[in-house]
């Protein structure tokens, strides 16, 4: 039977329950929530005066009620050493989600550590050190002392290149401005570590270099633009499952036509209709089904391309739009460069694109018209361009990204209402670090270094390569071999003899071993190889700031204690830096020791003030007190002033390249007079930064980037890119395709956040997905004699993995779709090591064969294999 | 550090912990001042009414009957699926009943007879009536509340309990 909690009532928060602002720490959308907490021996009542919501709960509540709490939104947690009831429920006053909660975020309470209800008992509570053949608890001083000693010794023998680092660079859980600053300060300021990589890719690089190099930062619009657009153009994204409440709260109303009043009011001098949507995806997704249900099939265009051919499609659209004269000539002239050269270089006929993409000529021409054909009366059509992992993890990342930005620029759709050319995002963002210029471009492929026996010590911050890297099979074999060498060495001398331990470790490292230090929330798969594991706190167990996909920055207030001795990452960094300082000083190297000063942070707020506040563009206006006062709505980065000062820092910026600020007056003549642009806050002159008063004044932000038509290039002009098609770019992909039957497309399931690092310990999710699923065309399943739920092996020359088969009529023949990054079947095992020229992996274009392993395992026999997509009632 | 052992442990503790939770709720309830020393002590679980939903002879295969349980404001459907399912009652083991309010946001769902699912027009969630209300796809953080049924000798179908918190209530039975 389906998993049921058998909970038939929940406590109600009393009127005086404590209320904290919470931003969901899972996906990029960053939905607003409120945490209500109150002592365990008290409760409120259902009458409106008796509960913290002020709602009448005495009868059945209506749909969309602000007062209903699902069991997953309730828990008992520790707060300042006391057990308290807690409810974490969606905030109806947050403009991002308007009270909607996703299947991931609405479980935040249940996904919290509780010794009372037993949830998330896998969380790490103590530092652990490899001793006596197992991981044994240790103190912070003891564990960090060992890490510092080995780190120092490796650096002394191999230089800083002997220290390999894997570190998240994002916001939300296991990230945030406090923690990225701290890790950045340690590795980029106290040291100049170059062998560093990010959580989901083997190098330290941008996933969207292509767009940035054109001068277009990737998060340049606001969520309201999806309500204002005439056309939504989406490539390689399944937003109903991966940016759920952005889709539900901002796209769907436009598809339904319920934002028409807003369009007429904000954009009065042009005709308006409900939005149409174009989705580029090799498979039919639940997103497409939902769009059809809302907008009608006639307003949804699914361009079902051959996997990896996005670039050819975008070049054809660019060519077609240019040929029709549907470009924004004034914008191109005033705000861009290299247009004519790009049109020439990228010329792709519709017929060529038909041949490469498999999409019909009629549909390609229809897409061009939906994107750019002027509206009645000649008004420019407003199209929002959005993309995510289908492009980012797809064939020829850099050029494909650029070929889409070309279309957006040609049609004048960056920096204007109803436009934007944006990545949709995975996590929230929260990057604040000293310059990474020394890393170089292309950056080092750290996975290859680890596989190749390079380096002596590996610091891991919230990453699990075993689940979320490419070429994972080989990586795991090499990593286990190298770390085992060190474990055997450590076992050969008494654990309490620190000097002997360090000598044994160093001998093993010289012989090709690797010392591994893993900082995380829960035991990870790569952590099973670590010699020191350090327990981190997550969002809500510490104050944490991040920004969402429209650069909306909020503070999640601490509402509970971290488990046991776990600490915020930034404070772990501080203590590690201090340990390194002591270690170098004791070794007589005062000059190096001095570099590890400046970490006297007592709280995460200290790290925030040292990092974001002092270093980030607009950071001088941002304090915890001001963010607290702005609640779940926050402000949109970059900050340009305070309500008391007005906008004092006008600029255009991505926020991603601090220091790249292009000054100059808005060029309205070239842009047309956009009503919103006139009211934009970033029209002010550059001035002296306002002093941080410590008060709670409202922060003024930036609704859209580039609203003044100036871009992040030295001349202020976005540059069109030459993006010729070159087939499957990554080495060996074409051969892999030619020699295997099935495309192993991959991505996310609605139920699961990221690599299921917390979800794997949640009964509701584990019941639904004990194993990853692989969607297969029912006819292919028939040919392989597979029944729904059967366990299959997916295998190729890179490795092998497992999944259970789920018939999906929305998949073409010989195409599959596998859940990515799942603990009980890692898709990365079958992804080749090939990357693009900037070391961006190509997870999506993977081909393999499939064979049956067994009939459906017991754990999946109670599950449903019906089609996922919704069909409206007929 | 053994992830597997930890996983088993967490599952076991979850079970124990969640059982304890109902008791904790009752303990909290009992701290509300009682009007009289002779007042009935609170029970650990809500007391469900027994309600007659219909008779077997009223049901046609795959045609849902509108019902409500535990009271008129909590609507649902009673369905004879035509094939036996786990948790089904009646001589054919195929009669089930579910709340029809989506546990995501409380929108009334419609029954799709072609694949025996309840579907939410609000945000597209789908629940499988042949699999105990398992969410096929959707936003709810729980599977669909199913009504526990009993069929008496005369073929009358009675509801006598619910296995999940119903949308729109802090307590499945409202005072």
UniProtKB/TrEMBL annotation, chain A:
<keyword id="KW-0411">Iron-sulfur</keyword>
<keyword id="KW-0408">Iron</keyword>
<dbReference type="InterPro" id="IPR050123">
    <property type="entry name" value="Prok_molybdopt-oxidoreductase"/>
</dbReference>
<feature type="domain" description="Arsenite oxidase subunit AioA/Iodate reductase subunit IdrA 3Fe-4S cluster">
    <location>
        <begin position="24"/>
        <end position="119"/>
    </location>
</feature>
<dbReference type="GO" id="GO:0050611">
    <property type="term" value="F:arsenate reductase (azurin) activity"/>
</dbReference>
<protein>
    <submittedName>
        <fullName>Arsenate reductase (Azurin) large subunit</fullName>
        <ecNumber>1.20.9.1</ecNumber>
    </submittedName>
</protein>
<dbReference type="InterPro" id="IPR041632">
    <property type="entry name" value="AioA/IdrA_3Fe-4S"/>
</dbReference>
<dbReference type="InterPro" id="IPR009010">
    <property type="entry name" value="Asp_de-COase-like_dom_sf"/>
</dbReference>
<dbReference type="InterPro" id="IPR006656">
    <property type="entry name" value="Mopterin_OxRdtase"/>
</dbReference>
<dbReference type="InterPro" id="IPR006657">
    <property type="entry name" value="MoPterin_dinucl-bd_dom"/>
</dbReference>
<dbReference type="Pfam" id="PF18465">
    <property type="entry name" value="Rieske_3"/>
</dbReference>
<feature type="domain" description="Molybdopterin oxidoreductase">
    <location>
        <begin position="123"/>
        <end position="578"/>
    </location>
</feature>
<keyword id="KW-0560">Oxidoreductase</keyword>
<dbReference type="Pfam" id="PF00384">
    <property type="entry name" value="Molybdopterin"/>
</dbReference>
<feature type="domain" description="Molybdopterin dinucleotide-binding">
    <location>
        <begin position="742"/>
        <end position="832"/>
    </location>
</feature>
<dbReference type="Pfam" id="PF01568">
    <property type="entry name" value="Molydop_binding"/>
</dbReference>
<dbReference type="InterPro" id="IPR014066">
    <property type="entry name" value="AioA/IdrA_lsu"/>
</dbReference>
<keyword id="KW-0479">Metal-binding</keyword>
TrEMBL record, chain B:
<dbReference type="InterPro" id="IPR014067">
    <property type="entry name" value="AioB/IdrB_ssu"/>
</dbReference>
<dbReference type="GO" id="GO:0050611">
    <property type="term" value="F:arsenate reductase (azurin) activity"/>
</dbReference>
<keyword id="KW-0560">Oxidoreductase</keyword>
<keyword id="KW-0408">Iron</keyword>
<dbReference type="InterPro" id="IPR006311">
    <property type="entry name" value="TAT_signal"/>
</dbReference>
<feature type="domain" description="Rieske">
    <location>
        <begin position="62"/>
        <end position="158"/>
    </location>
</feature>
<keyword id="KW-0001">2Fe-2S</keyword>
<keyword id="KW-0411">Iron-sulfur</keyword>
<keyword id="KW-0479">Metal-binding</keyword>
<dbReference type="Pfam" id="PF00355">
    <property type="entry name" value="Rieske"/>
</dbReference>
<protein>
    <submittedName>
        <fullName>Arsenate reductase (Azurin) small subunit</fullName>
        <ecNumber>1.20.9.1</ecNumber>
    </submittedName>
</protein>
<dbReference type="InterPro" id="IPR017941">
    <property type="entry name" value="Rieske_2Fe-2S"/>
</dbReference>
<dbReference type="InterPro" id="IPR036922">
    <property type="entry name" value="Rieske_2Fe-2S_sf"/>
</dbReference>
